[in-house]
Structures are given as structure tokens and as C-alpha cells.
Amino acid sequence: MNNTLALSFTLLFTVFSNQALADREGDMWQQFRAQKAMDELDAEFAKPEPAPAPTPEVVERIIERPAPQPAPAAIAPPVPVMIPVAVPASQPSMVTVESGGYIFNMGACRLAHRNIKCQLTITSIDSDGELSLYANNGSTSSRLFDRNGNEYQPSTIAMGNKNSNAHVKSRFISGVTARGNVEFINVDTSTRSISMFELNTYNYVTNKYERIQFRDVSLNL
User: What's the Cα-to-Cα distance from 215 to each of 41, 137, 156, 166, 192, rounded to whole Å?
Assistant: First the structure.
């Protein structure tokens, strides 16, 4: 009997102990779940607020319009540039006569202080030779005629480095031009042009006198 009671008490104690343990475990489980829920709730509130979505960048497209350009200034017509043209100096006219194997050139004559001086060149064509050129030498004198009909005889004649008031004798080398002049003095002041100049010569190759006539010779005043 006593053993039965003791066993019964033991069983009851065991049942109650197990029930108490189960209840305790249930409470602990409930407490754990409650604490977990609280932690989750705290964690939820502790989460940082999500960053606001970036505002889409608005790109303003600026249409560049070219600045108005000023109207082009009226272009003045080009001013013609006057380029001075060099006027060649007037070349004295030359009268040429070929005779007896020589070429005679009478250049322009110049009048100054009632004196006329004319340039003269002579070139031997074929071979060397000799000529006498006459100034004032009687019947063999050279002569000048102006437009007024006046006649003048040379005061001097020169060829190369020789000159005379009567005549000069010169040797002429073939192909070489010799230069000289003939001069007249006391010319009429009204003289403005020369109708003819007649140069009297003596050719030592042909042994003849020859009168070389230059017509319409220029006269520079």
C-alpha cells in the first residue's frame, strides 16, 4: 500500500514536473519568438531610408544661333594706279649714205649760240682705206644749206683724234666705226632746220673726189 502510494506520488510528481518543464519550455519559446519579433521590428525601423531616386538630369539643349553679322561694307571700286611710263628719250634721227666702200652716218645736229655741231661716223665696209675729209678748203669745201637757202662752210672738221679747219686725212680699218664731227659758226638766228649737208671727200683707193650728201638732217635747238 505504501509502495503504491509512493509510486503514485512519484508518477504525479513526474507528470507535474514534466508539465512544468513543458510549460517552462513553452514560455521560453514564446519569449524567444517575442524577442525575435521585437528584434526584427527594431531592425526594420533601424534600416536607413532608401536614398531618393536620382532626379533625371535634364539636359537643356541650347541651339546656338549665329550672331547676326554686320552687312559687308560697300567695297569702293579700286582706284586705278597711274604707273608712270618711262618715255624713251628721243633718239636723234640719223641719215645714212653708202658710197665708195664706206658707210657714212650723219647724226642729229645741235644749234647753240649761233653755232651748229653735227656728229659724223664712218665705217669701211670691204677693206682698210684712207679718206680726206674737207672743211673750208676752197673749191673742195663741204657745205651746209638751211631751209632759208643760206649756205655755210665748216669752220672745223674732226675724225678720231684729228681735227682741222681745212681737211683731215684718216685711215679707216675694215669693220671699225670711226667717230668725228663737223662744226659751223655764225649761223643765222632764224635757222631751224637743215635741208642738206654735203661732205666733200677724197678716196685714196679710187683716187676720186666724192660728195656725200645728207638730206633733211635733224636740228636740235
Answer: 144, 22, 20, 23, 14
The second-level CATH assignment, the architecture, of 95-220 is Sandwich (2.60)
The reply to whether the predicted model has a pTM over 0.85 is no
Cross-strand bridge partners of residue 161: none
Coil vs helix vs strand at 4: helix
Q: Where are the domains of the chain?
A: 95-220
Residue with cell 683707193: 205
CB 213 within 8 A of CB 198: yes
pLDDT digits 0-9 by tens, 130-147: 999 999 999 999 999 999
Q: Is the pLDDT of residue 170 over 80?
A: yes
Residue 61's pLDDT band (boundaries 50, 70, 90)? low
Q: Is pLDDT at 78 greater than 80 in this prediction?
A: no
- Cα–Cα distance between 211 and 197 in angstroms, integer? 10
